[in-house]
Design goal:
- By secondary structure, this protein is mainly alpha-helical.
- The protein is about 75% helix and about 5% strand.
- The chain is built from 24 helices and 4 strands.
- It has helices spanning about 5-15, 15-35, 35-40, 40-50, 60-75, 75-90, 90-115, 130-140, 145-160, 165-180, 195-215, 215-245, 250-260, 265-270, 275-295, 300-305, 315-345, 345-350, 355-365, 370-405, 410-425, 430-455, 455-470, 475-479, and strands spanning about 120, 125-130, 185-190, 195.
- The strands form 2 sheets. The chain has a two-stranded antiparallel sheet with strand order 1-2.
- Strand 1 (about 120) and strand 2 (about 125-130) form a beta hairpin.
- Helix 5 packs across helix 12 (about 215-245).
- It is globular, with a radius of gyration of 21 Å.
Amino acid sequence: MTFDSILSSINDVVWGIPTIVLILVTGLILTIRLRCLQFTQLKRGFRSIFRKREGEEGEVSAFAALCTALSATIGTGNIVGVATAISAGGPGALFWMWIAAILGTATKFAECMLACKYREVKEDGHILGGPFYTIEKGMGAKWKWLAKLFAIFGVCAGILGIGTMTQINGITSAINNAFDPSNSNIAFNLMGIDYSWATVIGGAIVTICAALVILGGLKRIAKVSEVVVPFMAALYVFLGMSVVVMNATKIPAAFATIFQSAFGMSAVAGGAMGFVMKQMTDAMQKGVARGIFSNEAGLGSAPIAACSAQMKDPVEQGLVSMTGTVIDTLIICTMTGLSIVIAGEGIWGNPELKGVVLTTAAFSKVLGGDGQSVQFLLMLCLVFFAFTTILGWDYYSERCLEYLTNGHMKAVGAFRLLYIVAIAIGPYMTVSAVWTIADITNGLMAIPNCISLIVLSGLVARHTKDYLTRFPTFESEEE
């Protein structure tokens, strides 16, 4: 067996039906117990982002904490991940991304609220919190082994998958596709694969820039995220809205294709009844996996950033945090997915087109022109998206390691250097291996986190009800 096939077999087990059901059921339970809070309190969540929080304990503002979390979630998953899901699972994968996101909004609220409730303020003033403390303090000391398991998976996810290699691999692929698509300027050959100077130079520049920010800690990461995240999101939404406006007449057909594919109806139409369940399962598996990869709801990562925010009450920050899932998946990922589906099966069904190349081809087709300007803008978006994800996941991994080592900051410092090395070698990993490793570590993080959320769902519901009774409106919260 090859290395890729071994990883694929592990991934099929980790992201099998049990894990998918666990994540979706967790979101469903929380949606019911919180009385569809993601719908009734969404407006309040957005308004709370910018509420003044003078004198409230925390390291950064609510906006900075949200941007730090978004810096980790808005990444290659929004551009490359969506394309990968549709390529592997068909347009129906986008539908299951939406379902995962709708239920995941309630999950994001609960996991961030609990992390804020159980966070610890250390002697030097910095704050540590996340699912590891939620499990240890909320479920009891006898479950500390599960908390440590989550933290181990969190460190591995950051350095082996979602935080480093997938992001830098996506960046360098986009740079190479924009500046040297024919690979005419080869720097070297490694294990039979040619790497261009565009890939080498792009990877080196990103590694250096990431190192300069990472070595500055949370406040520098938050400061960079506050500037970059709103800019990059606005730029990508502008591109996506251009697609929607210019192809408005094709949108109904695109939605029809998405729904048909989601439930295997296209297989039925094609006379392949035996493949209906396979098509539906593939769409669900890829959609949920990529949805979780993109918005990280249920993964347990966002709470690590959320608990550093200045806040009046954990529920308040939970409301702010849940808006991140809406922004990430229901807005940004939808823009990507619709563009790819509108481009037609000749684009998304082409096995020659993978990852960022597929997304670029789709945007170029639906927007028209020579494609070079679109390619450059997409490259710019991907570079910013992935770069901020590298920063956010370094922070998450560091906090998990701090918990595991009982605050041994020398170990954290050594980890930062190792993290930077992983970024540097990321461009030279195969795309399939990188994404599979990311999926595996994501799934492993989600399992202990979702278990704790189900166990503590009653506590979440009671605390939320009490808060909304005391502060029934946003205005009463400000008084």
